[in-house]
Input
Amino acid sequence: MPERNLDFDRVIDRKNTNCLKYDFAKQRGRPENVLPLWVADMDFATSSYVEDALTERVKHGIYGYSEVGTDYFNAVCGWMKRHHDWLPEEKWLVKTPGVVFALAMAVKAYTEKGDGVLLQQPVYYPFSEVIEDNGRRVVSNTLYLGSDNRYHMDFEDFERKIVQEKIKLFFLCNPHNPVGRVWTKEELETIGDICVKNHVIVISDEIHQDFAFKGKHQVFANLKKEYEDISIVCTSPSKTFNLASMLISNIFIPNPDLRRKFKKELDAAGISQLSVLGLTACEAAYRNGDVWHTAVRSYIEKNIAFIKNFTEQYLDGVTMTGHEGTYLVWLDFRNTGYKGRELDRLILQEAEVWLDSGSIFGDSGEGFQRINAACPGSVLEEALHRIKKALNKN
Output
């Protein structure tokens, strides 16, 4: 049976479906009729293979405690092999209800209260939240925007912070959200060697791995054998197949001691079996979702090109930073004269577009906005025209 859900131009009404993106603007202090391109889910129907698998499972009528075995792992492993040249072992797999949940478990498993945890701001804001909310300290090896309009790592500062702050744990984001970098093999090996040398555990958040548009996504643990001993690789079908509410992530931990410590924290949190629908959706997506994934990647890539062209032609003072991966685009408004709350007010109140303010990703995100390109082209065009009108009005 061929894939059915390939019409990405179709605008699907998500209102009144308990949709976080569309139904909770007023409760969150946003204008009721705001156009939302903030939270990182898609406005596209997922693969029809996932839809059909869920429908069949729901028809069974019994949703008791459920688990999966080798067939599930083979579907996940097959995807990793086909798309990322990586063959993880089945014993490495630990399933969790989300990547952010896994980050929190890692903080508890591998650090003590008061320890510093290293990250690279501006970065996905739950990174900082799970560190601080668990009584640890955020230490940032802040990325810098180069003359090539791409973000880069400061390797000297990276090692200096590890030594000075006695870092045990590093959160790597690859591809990077929100700055859109797909880190190169050379960049990853530079920080990987530093982490091996200094006995630092690497939590590699690779949830956006299936949206590398320039370069090639590198699974951190697969770069060098010695990286396996320090790696927790976090993956999920949630971004790739728009399955965020299914609460399913696949975490790979090759080192048995690190895996044991991680599982102990899962037990302490009361996590055992996950949702049968999440497991069903994940297996169907990874087993049969290649055609849908190829098509949605192509569509999103065109949307990203549209954002770049529109920005260059019509948004004076706004620059789209060099984009390599994820469907989240990082826009630099610093040359518009707007910043901080004034910029947020312009976008939200005058343009009536809901984006993610750059400041929530760390101080280095000030003056930026993150826009989600995973929506029908007509919706994206409307949002950008609203921003253009607001900027021109002022």
